[in-house]
Amino acid sequence: AALLTLTRKRGAASYAQTLQNIPETQVTTLENGLRVASEESNQPTCTVGLWIEAGSRYEDKRTNGSGFFVEHMAFKGTKKRLGSAFEKEVESLGAHLNGYTSREQTAFYIKALSKDMPKVVELLSDLVQNCALEDSQIEKERGIILQELKEMDSNLTDVTFDYLHATAYQGTALAQTVEGTTENIKRLTRADLATYVDTHFKAPRMVLAAAGGISHRELVDAAKQHFTGAPFSYKGDSVPPLAHCRFTGSEIRARDDGLPLAHIALAVEGPGWADPDNVVLNVANAIIGRYDRTFGGGKNQSSRLAALSVEHNLCHSFEPFNTSYSDTGLFGFHFVSDPLSIDDMMFCAQGEWMRLCTSTTESEVTRAKNYLRNAMVAQLDGTTRVCETIGSNLLHYGRRIPLEEWDARISAVDASMVRDVCSKYIYDKCPAIAAVGPIEQLLDYNRIRSSMYWIRL
Length: 457
What we know:
Its main location: mitochondrion. With about 450 residues, the chain is of the alpha+beta class.
């Protein structure tokens, strides 16, 4: 017993020490508005990246897909490094270059040896400041992107979530896909892409983030040296504030009986990034849990919905989600099931939502909080994940939120808070629904809406 107690104490102390020993995130704002943020460690490598407040939400119907197109073009040469010279120079460092575009942000980052940090900063500045956008490369990438769009249509999970955004935020910028439409990709010109870069790639909209064996002072010096060109000397912000994307309770059904499985997503409107309710909703999602037929545990899993799924063969997989944007979000669940199991799975999943609102227990909350703590500490695994956390945090919250603060927020959640917050967002609310595949058995929208509350005496 004494040995077990000692082991438990050592584990608890190790977790607490992990949170306390995380290096401080240093942030410096340059005169042009560029924020430079870094976390120093003893790693022999570093990850340096640019996180930019730009994405498909900043596009209109005609230009939707511009950001995704620019991301492709960014790696295809600059005015200083034509053709494949940019990629070759990255490879000569033994470095790894990557990037992505989402609805509200764009990122470019390079993982390299710590000693090459100044060179990496220069490469990133060249990438966003001097993107060549050669006509021949544009036509080549146009064909590649069109092929990607065809391949994306076969990923029914992504298709379902695009439909979910389209119905939940219909008529607004968030309804658009990140990749854009096939028609747009075919007609976007060099002038469209150049306008997108000139409009959005401004210093006040950027965060230069770094993690690993680097010095913050040297990072700032490199940023001052290289981020001084035309886009970075601009101190204002020509992009108007984002219009609020109003949530609409509605549905999209894309029935195709030739597909073997049905993909269903159901969501209510969730809070934006900075809302403290997000922590409670993440605890609620951890209570629901996630399931896939490849998981072990069977019906002995701690997730009640997972145990029901195994016992009654309800689905192939399910996963809750809490997708946040600057001023709104989607809180819901997605499942994949056989055509004849849709009704039963939807009934059980909505029943779990109602249980969260009315009868969440403290033991469930304790388990869920431990799950979130584990996921939180996993963010420390590697310089790339740390760098992405820094960049995203500064865009979303204006600061890097320490893990100790996240841990305190998680610890403050109790069963009463979960019931109250879930009732606020779920109970008697009109959901958005997206369904793809053999979905004949999916009940009428009004029937699903009627399961968003319980008649209580």
